[in-house]
Amino acid sequence: MTDSFFHFCLGGGAPQSPETRRRCGVLSGGIGIGLNLLLFLGKLLAGLAVSSIAITADAFNNLTDAASSVVTLVGFRLAGQEADEEHPFGHGRMEYLAGLVVAMLILLVGVELAQSSFRKILHPGPVDFSAPAAVILAVSVGVKLWMFWFNRGLARRIQSAALSATAADSLSDAAATGTLLLGLLAGHFLQLPLDGWLGLGVALFILRTGWGAAKDTVDPLLGRPMDPELAADIDRIVLGHDYILGIHDLVYHDYGPGRAMMSLHAEVPADGDFLEIHDVIDHIERELKAKHHIETSIHMDPIVRDGRTEALRRQTAELARELDPVLTIHDFRVTAGPIHTNILFDVVVPYGFRLSDGEVKTFLSQKLKEMSDRYFPVIQVDHSYVEGQKAP
């Protein structure tokens, strides 16, 4: 396996550590620069030899790939810098920006190739066959497939959107060059003027690849939901400790791979020893940082769990599930007064839910008042995407 990806990027280490990611990004960028420059020179000579606009355009695609590799290399070096006064959360998002620049270059190549191919369709010309040119294209396909495999493997090791974009670009290049090779053979043996049409097909494939790569890098920059597997493991870690009854209001901020911050609310028994609970909370924060490299801040929510409150909480949770099984509640509290009893809780409503927040609150309020005219519901709608409760 290519000497285990060059001994996992020349030194090993934790896959999510900034130093390991920097070394892998520099290695990928250096290899990309060298190989793409060689492919550019080979394809340029082949395209000029057979008078093929598609092959010549593909050569400049490789030149753009070399520039993309420079961007990848620089991006990973910048992302590996330590936090400073101006950037207290580090420079990890530079990796996402590098991936976005690569995606933009892919799209630019696709647009330029589409324009050249369209002109060739309108004004077709002969394409001369050359055995050396065919060999150069075949070798290029093999090199690009290897680069796809190599970058995809590294991307999976270190969970890198930038290297995933580079791998996708290599795969699109392999498909594009393979298509051009078939067109060269078809033009020679079948006398079919396919050069312009094949170039247009390659352009559309490149545009599709660029769009996907751009989306993969823009999403973490804009802010996306936490990975479900990571959320489930956080749920398991936190609820696995004594005193923790449930968690909710988890907010996750991604500052680049291996650089994240998170806050959550942990429900704890109101009659527990708060010094012991505080020690447990500190331990959980350290454990999350050690395992997932997440700086975590945990807010404690004291929960009263007497028999009457627990029964009413279960009834309210059932009312939420009656409206829709995806709805859950948390932060449930009851404060009794001489005239009415306040029932305070948050209801978790998914984004894009079929009912408005007001309709959800109205439904639950009416149902609770039907149970007793003394109940006065105070409901807060919450759009958090993670909640967990310890099994009773």
Characterize the structure shown:
By secondary structure, this protein is an alpha/beta fold. The protein has three domains: 2-222, Up-down Bundle (Alpha-lytic protease prodomain-like); 225-302, Alpha-Beta Plaits; 304-392, Cation efflux protein, cytoplasmic domain (Alpha-Beta Plaits, 2-Layer Sandwich), CATH 3.30.70.1350. The protein starts with a helix and ends with a strand. α1 packs across α2 (18-50), α2 (18-50) runs antiparallel to α5 (131-158) and α3 (53-79) runs antiparallel to α4. It has eleven helices and seven strands. The radius of gyration is 29 Å and the shape is elongated. The protein has helices spanning 2-11, 18-50, 53-79, 94-122, 131-158, 161-189, 195-222, 228-239, 274-292, 307-323, 357-371; strands at 246-254, 260-269, 294-303, 328-336, 341-348, 375-382, 388-389.
